[in-house]
Records
---
Amino acid sequence: MTQDELKALVRTVPDFPHAGILFRDVTTLIGHGEGFAVAVTLLAQQAAAIGAEAVAGIEARGFIFGAAVAARLGLPFVPVRKPGKLPVPVLALDYALEYGTGTLEVDPGAVHVGQQVVVIDDLVATGGTALAAVELLRKASARADHALFLIDLPDLGGAERLRGAGVAVQSLMDFPGH
C-alpha cells in the first residue's frame, strides 16, 4: 500500500467540531484492515529504529495506535490518560488547549528511570497534548525525546513546537490546513 493510498483512507469532515475546521478522521483508516495494519507496521518500524523501550499512547486514539505498536514490538504500553481514569496515585499536568485547558495523567510506576519511551498519537496539531505527555513522562524520569504520529498538520506548528522542546517528531502523512 502506497503512502497516497494510506492517506486516502483518512476521511476529512468539514466544520467539525467548529465551523471552518477540517477534521481528519482516522476511524476510516482504522476500519480498513490492510490500511490499519500498514500504519501500525510503519509506526512500529519507526519506534524500533529509535530504540524504543516502551510506548506511551495518548487517550484516546493514541491508545489504538500505541497499543498496537507496543504489541507488535513486544514492548510495555504506557497509557497517558484523562483525569480520574487511573486507580493509583498519578502524576498530572494541566496544559493549554486552543479553547481552554486540559489535564493528562500517568502512573509514574509505569516507566523506569532513563527508559526510552516513544509517545504515539493519531495526530499532531498545535502540539499541546503531546508536549504535556512528554513532560509527564520526563517528570516520571523516563527519556521521552521521540514522538510518532499518523498525521501532522504542519500549518498549526505542533511538530515544530515539540522539536523546540527537544522531541524528534515523525509522521506518516501530513495534511494542509487545520
Note: The chain has a mean pLDDT of 96.
---
Amino acid sequence: MKDPDASRPVTASSLPEPVRTFPEQVTMPCYVLDPLWNACVANKAARRLFVGWLDSEERNLLRYVFLDPAARTLLDEWEGSARRVLAEFRAASIRGDTHLVETLVQELRSRSPDFERLWHNQSVLLREGGPRRFRHPTDGPLDFDQTTLTFTTWPHYQLVTLKPR
C-alpha cells in the first residue's frame, strides 16, 4: 500500500510528533530525512555540523552534496562520500513517490555532471552508517560514527545520528 501523503511536501510541523521531537532529545548531531532526502528536522548540533545545509533554505541532502561547493570541502573524500550517498538514496528511494523521485533525479542529472556520471553506476547500498569524517570550516577535522534508524510506524522517515569518535 502506498502512503497517500508521500507526494506532499513534508514540513517539520506536519511530521508525526515523535519524529519531529526526537532529534532535540539527542545531544549529538541528529536529523530526520524524508523519502526524497529532505531534512525535515535537525537539532542544534546537526545544524552546527552541517553548516550550509541544515542551516539553509535548501534542505535536500542530494542537492547539497552535488550542487553546493561547500559540500566538497565539508565532506572528507568528497567523491567517495558522494558515491555512497547516491547509492544509499537509490536503495531508500523505493519508499518515495516514483514521480517525485524521478523529477529530483532528472533535475540533478541536468545540473550536476558528477551526479550524472555517478547515477550511471547504478550502485545500491543500504544506509548502514559507519565512520564519517568532516572538515568543518570552524572546528577543523571531525570524526563521527553514523547510525541510521527507520521508524517502525513511519518507515519513510530515517533518523540519522552522528556520535563523536
Note: DSSP finds seven helices and five strands in the chain.
